[in-house]
Amino acid sequence: MFDFRYHVASLAAVFVALVLGILVGVGVSSNDTLSHSERKLLNEQKAELQARYTALAGQLNALEDQQRAASAFSSVAYASVMQDRLKGKRLGIVFVGPSDPRLRSLVEGALTDANGVSTRYRAINVPIDPAAIEKALASRPALAAKYEGTAGLEALGKELGSELVKGGKAPLWGPLSRLLVVERLGGMRGALDGVVLVRTTQPQHGPTVGFLHGFYTGLGSAGAPLVGVQTSDAKVSSTALFRQLGISSVDDLQTPAGRLALAALLAGAQPGHYGLDQTNDASVLPPLPSG
């Protein structure tokens, strides 16, 4: 489907060039100073351009018909392959940075299309405030001692990530939610079967870097698939970060293929990096297990 789109765009550009050529030819051929041989040559060139224009117009119409057919087929096929792929699975969505309504809608749409259930949503506030975190933990001496100082922030992030996936009592999220969460939906009851990670923040610096490294590690070490997502037009790409951390990723969430890749990875497909990004060492889709 995407090849058709690019082909149509290139043909449109050729159309413009041909039309300009014909117009220039007509303008020049009207000049009375041209010799008979020059006029004959220009008329032949104009006729050739007009013939090419007609042929390309036919190709464009055919491609547009194929595009419409492919789009219709894609809609039907998408619904078929997504159906029940995530049935019965409890899934979480984590934004690092402010929530993006478009991205959230795409993620939730993919989960719904695959009959999955989003039971836990959090948008994490960054950069973190180490002093405020230390103060919040001060009333719990055992926790304060365990995660004391900047050196303990990565361990703190890891435990928070693990708690978020595993659910349950979550002793760290209790005192820290007010500081770390800017938007939330759903409680901590029960473990998650998979997590979608969306990074909307700019690259961080200082203590937040270690904290987030631990947080990502914790999300991925809790036994459930973790998938990082973005759209192809993302202003700040997270692909390199996901690769560095060994987090499976999808870089074209705005496409049906991207949403299918997300559902497949959450359902247990082969981990990797999928989408339209030319640096991917995999493909647009992972091998699809039956579902």
Topology:
Layout: H1 2-29, H2 36-82, E1 90-96, H3 101-113, E2 117-124, H4 130-137, H5 141-146, H6 153-166, H7 173-180, E3 181-185, E4 194-199, H8 207-220, E5 226-229, H9 239-245, E6 248-250, H10 256-266, E7 273-274
Parallel strand pairs: 1-2, 1-4, 4-5, 5-6, 6-7
Antiparallel strand pairs: 2-3
Helix pairs in contact: 1-2, 2-10, 3-10, 6-8
Number of strands: 7
Low-confidence stretches: none
| Strand-residue proportion | 5-15%
Order of helices and strands: HHEHEHHHHEEHEHEHE
What does this structure look like?
The chain has ten helices and seven strands. It is α/β, with parallel strands linked by helices. The chain folds into two domains: 2-81; 88-274, Rossmann fold. β6, α10 (256-266) and β7 (273-274) form a beta-alpha-beta unit. It is elongated. 34% of the residues are buried.
